[in-house]
Amino acid sequence: MEDIIYNQLGYSILSWTVFLPVVGAVLLLFVRNAAAVRWTTLLFTIATFFVAFPILGNFDKTTHKMQFVEKSPWIPSWGINYFIGIDGISVLFIFLTTILSILCVLVSWKSIENKVKEFHIAILTLEAGMLGVFVALDFFLFYLFWEAMLIPMFLLIGVWGGKNRLYAAIKFFLYTLVGSVLMLVGIVVLYFAGGKTLDILALSNMHAQFPFQLQFWLFLAFFAAFAVKVPMFPVHTWLPDAHTEAPTAGSVILAGVLIKMGAYGFLRFSMPMLPDATKFFMVPIMVLSVVAIIYGALVCFAQKDFKRLIAYSSVSHMGYVTLGLFALNTQGVEGGILQMLNHGIITGAMFLMIGIIYERTHTRVIADYGGFAKIVPWYAGLFMILTFASIGLPATNGFIGEFLIMFGAFKAKKILGVFAATGIILGAGYMLWLYQRIFFQEANPDYDAGGHHHVRDLDLREVITLVPLFVFVFWIGFYPNTFLEYMHASVEHLIQGMELTAVAGNENMIAKYIMEIF
Amino acid sequence: MEMETTISLLDMRLLVPELTLICVGLILMLLDLVVKKKELIAAVGIAGTLVAMYGTYKLYGFYDPQTAFAGMFVVDGYSNFFKLIFYLNIILTICISLKYMTIEKASFGEYYALLMFSTTGMMIMASAADLIVLYLGLELMALSTYILAGFMRTQPRSNEAALKYFFLGAFSSAFLLYGISLTFGLTGTTNLKGIAEALGALSIMDSPIAYLGLIFIIVAFSFKIALVPFHMWAPDVYEGSPTSITAFMSVGPKAAGFAVLGRVLFDAFAGMQVQWSAILVPIAVITMATGSIIALAQTNIKRMLAYSSIAHAGYMLLGIISGTHDGLTSTINYLMIYLFMNIGAFAIVITLRREGFQGEDLEDYMGLSKSHPLASALMLIFMFSLAGIPPTAGFVGKFYVFLEAINAGYVYLAVIAVAFSAVSAFFYLRVVMYMYMKDPVKEISLTTSPSMSIALAVTAMMVLIIGIFPSVLLNLVKLSILG
Question: Would you kindly state where each structural domain of chain A is located, as residue ranges?
Answer without folding.
Answer: 274-518
